[in-house]
Write a structure and sequence with these properties.
Organism: Ammoniphilus resinae
CATH topology: Rossmann fold
Number of domains: 1
Pfam family, one: FMN_red
InterPro entries: Flavoprotein-like_sf (IPR029039), FMN_Rdtase-like_dom (IPR005025), NAD(P)H-dep_reductase (IPR050712)
Largest sheet: 6 strands, parallel
CATH superfamily: Flavodoxin domain
CATH class: Alpha Beta
Protein name: NAD(P)H-dependent FMN reductase
Bound molecules: flavin mononucleotide
Family: Belongs to the azoreductase type 2 family.
Oligomer: single chain
């Protein structure tokens, strides 16, 4: 950078991209009617928005109306929009619910529908289930390895028995907000670092 640029604070394109706020998508993993995932996703977004360190947005798989992979000619607009949405994100928070000890079919299908748009980005996982959705979360980590997504360590795990009243109304125990923030610290760090790799 030259003397005048230094004086007037002109930044290069590269510097600009490093100082731009990260875009982080909060991906709702379930699509069934009556699902609990919007309550959990909105709670995470509320905590995240208070930080001011990234642009956080809810990304609802249901909105894209993805067909089951391989059953159509692939020209549905939702497939292109899904890839475009992911391509514009620097990091992900997966809201994961446990179905038969794994992730939902809807989330697996959505994961399979993109490749490059996932690569060299970071992710955090917030899960729920009878044992905090732990088994589903661990399955997701294996899938993310193949998609070259770096999943951070801290993992808020919510219990269907103690964090939801009657198994439906989300009333998270106080301690979880701290764990979400710890996960977000790691996610923002890694999402920012991986921008260099891309
Ligand atoms: C098909 C199906 C399988 C499930 N299997 C499990 C399971 O293996 N372990 C568990 O803890 N909860 C299981 N559950 C309970 C779900 O975790 C619970 O219903 C949760 O609310 C689902 O997320 P959603 O409301 O966002 O769809 C299952 C629910 C469904 C619908």
């Amino acid at each position: 950078m030259g003397f005048l640029d230094n004086l007037f604070g002109k930044t290069t394109k590269e510097e600009e991209s490093m100082t731009e706020k990260l875009n982080i998508g909060i991906i709702l993993g379930s699509t069934r009617q009556g699902r609990l995932s919007p309550q959990v996703g909105n709670w995470v977004k509320e905590i995240a928005d208070k930080r001011g360190d990234a642009n956080y947005e809810i990304v609802d798989i249901a909105d894209f109306q993805l067909p089951f992979l391989g059953t159509t000619d692939g020209t549905e607009p939702g497939i292109a929009s899904w890839n475009e949405k992911l391509a514009n994100l620097d990091g992900f928070i997966f809201i994961v619910q446990e179905y038969n000890h794994s992730i939902t079919g809807a989330l697996k299908n959505a994961l399979d529908f993109a490749r490059e748009a996932w690569n060299n980005k970071a992710a955090g996982i917030v899960s729920y289930g009878s044992v905090g959705g732990a088994r589903a979360a661990e399955h997701l980590r294996g899938i993310l390895g193949e998609l070259a997504v770096a999943d951070v360590r801290t993992h808020p795990a919510l219990s269907l028995f103690t964090d939801f009243e009657n198994g439906t109304d989300f009333k998270p125990a106080e301690m979880h907000a701290g764990t979400v923030n710890e996960m977000l610290d790691q996610l923002v760090n890694w999402s920012s670092a991986l921008k260099n790799v891309r």
